Amino acid sequence: MARDKTDRTDKTPPATRGTPDWRDAAAYGDVKRWTLGRWRWEFFRRRDDVRAFFDERAEPQYEGDLAGWQRACARNDFKPAERAYILEHAPIKPDDPRFLARCTPEEQDRFGYISVFNPRIGDVSKFENDVERRDSFEWAVSGERGDKVLSGIKLEKYHFVIAFSIARPLAQQLADAARNLKGLQKYRLGHHPQKRRHPTKWFGYLRALDAREAGATWQEISALYPQTNQTEQAARDTWEQARALCFNF
């Protein structure tokens, strides 16, 4: 059979893409231990626009941070402990798993992340603490009764703020909040919004993305899924479903 040479994607070497060899399932590591956040990152980091954003932003950001750090190192008005701290905390380089490319508010809306790690690294530093979707921060409202007040916040359509007491058991408060929010969803929207997830397919989706990016034919990709009829159209369908998940996990 002639090789399919049309509609190919990036021919960049795997080391540059930062993705495993799609032909070797073991190269992906123990995917059964991946959290939901890790899965989300794995699909997100395979987007071309994410890679382009990081490549454009990372080096200028690092150079700016490095210049600021060098200026701080040259100052002589710091206490010894402060100076030691500064010297020990040089800016992190873009190829380090801890590096984060900062996003503007517009980019946060576009990507759904506060900041972006190097998309060519899967196992990034402190993943669950630092790689967060922006919608997780809709609850960043703090304050207490007394001499402190809630910070001013402009709520968008369908946003709702609930105050919790840290002096009372949380379980019942959370249960009450969930019940009230679900009631509001039903009243305002007519249904309870939810995403249908098919995690058993995710590993196969990643391999389809990596295979196509590496230049594999649809026929070669179809061989990854013995449970299907292994047609080229089935491989295309799997790849399209995987691509959609990159943008709407």
Radius of gyration: 23 Å
What's the helix-strand series? HHHHEHEHHHHH
User: What structural class do the secondary elements suggest?
Assistant: mainly alpha
Strand order of the largest sheet: 1-2
Beginning-to-end CA distance, first to last residue: 35 Å
Count the DSSP helices: 10
Shape label: flat
Topology:
Blueprint: H1 14-17, H2 36-44, H3 48-74, H4 80-88, E1 100-102, H5 105-111, E2 115-117, H6 127-130, H7 170-189, H8 202-213, H9 218-222, H10 232-247
Antiparallel strand pairs: 1-2
Helix pairs in contact: 2-10, 8-10
Question: What are the key terms here?
Answer:
single chain; 249 residues; mainly alpha; two-stranded antiparallel sheet
Provide a descriptive summary of the structure in words:
This protein is an all-alpha fold and 249 residues long. The chain is 45% helix and 2% strand. It has helices at residues 14-17, 36-44, 48-74, 80-88, 105-111, 127-130, 170-189, 202-213, 218-222, 232-247; strands at 100-102, 115-117. The chain has a two-stranded antiparallel sheet with strand order 1-2. The radius of gyration is 23 Å and the shape is flat. The two termini are 35 Å apart. Mean pLDDT is 84; it is low at 1-12.
Describe what is shown at a glance.
With 249 residues, the protein is mostly helical. Helix content is 45%, strand content 2%.
